[in-house]
Design brief:
7 strands, alpha+beta, 7-stranded antiparallel beta sheet, about 160 residues, Immunoglobulin-like
């Protein structure tokens, strides 16, 4: 009877080996995909940015005290920025710079200075080289005060 049981269970060691072969194969595919799809993007100066964290927090508190309202949008190769102070009055005497950054691919970033058009409106000609998702950053400087904001936009073809 014992011999018959051994003959009936001949496949158990092969199932055990087969299970581990499948696990190793799947892990190999996953490692290959991870290495093949990695874009190579890394944060430049990550350590220095980490050290500057307290300064960034202080800057954010100062920015919140200003109460400025900044609206920015992108349309047909131009970034339009509208500025207003805490009371809703247009800010027309500021320096405004804008930046388009591609979050998934390096080397495509664009930056420009926006020109005042009156009534708190500023425009910068800044064409995105590719359609898709971009990060739009706006920096406003007025005297000793500064304001930064960023938002994600979608550029249509």
């Amino acid at each position: 009877m014992a011999k018959r049981t051994r003959q009936a269970l001949w496949w158990v060691p092969w199932a055990f080996v087969g299970f581990f072969v499948v696990v190793v194969a799947v892990n190999g595919v996953m490692v290959g995909l991870a290495l093949w799809t990695f874009p190579g993007l890394a944060t430049e100066g990550a350590y220095e940015k980490g050290l500057a964290y307290n300064a960034a927090l202080a800057s954010a508190r100062a920015q919140a005290r200003l109460g400025w309202r900044v609206e920015a949008g992108y349309d047909a190769g131009a970034v339009t920025v509208r500025l207003a102070d805490a009371a809703g009055r247009p800010i027309s005497d500021a320096r405004v710079s804008v930046r388009l950054r591609r979050p998934t691919r390096g080397g495509l970033d664009r930056a420009a200075r926006a020109e005042p058009r009156g009534q708190g409106r500023y425009v910068a000609g800044l064409a995105a080289p590719l359609a898709g998702i971009w990060d739009l950053g706006v920096t406003v400087v007025r005297g000793t005060d500064s304001y930064r904001t960023a938002r994600r936009i979608e550029v249509m073809p």
